[in-house]
Amino acid sequence: MDHGPGTASVVCDERLTGYNFGAAHPMAPIRVDLAMELAGELGVVGPDLRQVGAEPADDTLLATVHTPRYIEAVRAISADPSRPDPSTGIGTDDNPAFAGMHAASALIVGASVEAARRVWTGDSVHAINVCGGLHHAMPDRASGFCIYNDVAVAIRWLLDHGAQRVAYVDVDAHHGDGVQAVFYDDPRVLTVSLHETPQTLFPGTGLATEIGVGDAQGTAVNVALPPGTSDAGWLRAFHAVVPQVVREFKPDVLVTQQGCDSHMDDPLTNLMLSVDGQRASYLALRALAQEVCGGRWVAYGGGGYAVLDVVPRAWTHLMAIVAGRPIDPETPTPQAWRQRVADLKSGGSAPVRMTDGRSTSYRDWAQGYDPASWLDRQILATRNEIFPLWGLDPMP
């Protein structure tokens, strides 16, 4: 269902690309520039998706998730990157220190909280921060390219401002371990992560047996996908687990992380999705928000390291869906954007359409379980762990 003009927001500020680990690091800020440029040229950002700004999170807001000692350490490293504190996880190949790290990281948190605030106060039905989604950061240390956990802070903000139940769905190829860890014992937060199996990918967590503790048992849901899983398998897994659990949880708001490193061209992962499959996941999440929580949907970016060909197209589709005006996959990419990508490739070609030309059909779980399929065994493992806790039948 389309919604009227002015009821969706994208939080974006050119300062957000100051979160920069250096030219050799895979998480290049150019991916955000190219996504916003493509979305602008295709008319996605405009009356249906207002661009709004944000201010950095202060220490009090950061401390709702992160320890004061860690925040102080990040500030100190920002002032002198030549002396990182090894206990913080900063100064590694994954998380190199850089000048201004605290300010850049705090701004991403501020932008993510602003997106949550826009939705929770009713200013916007949907809101997105494509620079957000830094889901690996732990309360006392950096991890996996993530300094502060903007997603966890935004969820905490929602809880502190009246939300009774928040559902978080993470479709990044990597397990959303930091967000899960923060809320592992909190029954008010449902964390659902579909990711490549920890047998083959960082961070080495996210098994079906990770279900939460105490009163929160059943509120951590993990689907560990075999390497090589493509659109049909991924969508089969998503629809076999996510809608049923989210419906039972009955959240007040849906928060999602859309890392697009599940793409077949991503250099860091082993999943095989297309832009078309990723677009289908965004549509499914939007429909789920519409069904379970009155459309209240806060979306974030995340991983994605095919920075020229994949990330801009995937997140432009995401922004268009957030805006309530999905783009036809056959839409040509604008010539000016295509030329910029070609120039960045030193003469290489750029994608000419917003599609990879792949089908998004899949076999529904209700059509039968195949015990010979690694994927089906993983799906059933999750259903066996989680569904009985919600009064659901784990078998087809």
UniProtKB/TrEMBL annotation:
It holds the Pfam family Hist_deacetyl. SUPFAM superfamilies: Arginase/deacetylase (SSF52768). The keyword rRNA-binding does not apply. It comes from the Bacteria. GO terms for molecular function: histone deacetylase activity. Pathway: Ketone degradation; acetoin degradation. GO terms for biological process: acetoin catabolic process; epigenetic regulation of gene expression. InterPro entries: AcuC (IPR003085), HDACs (IPR000286), His_deacetylse_dom (IPR023801), His_deacetylse_dom_sf (IPR037138), Ureohydrolase_dom_sf (IPR023696). Residues 25-320 form the Histone deacetylase domain. Keywords: Acetoin catabolism. Belongs to the histone deacetylase family. This is Acetoin utilization protein AcuC. It comes from Mumia zhuanghuii.
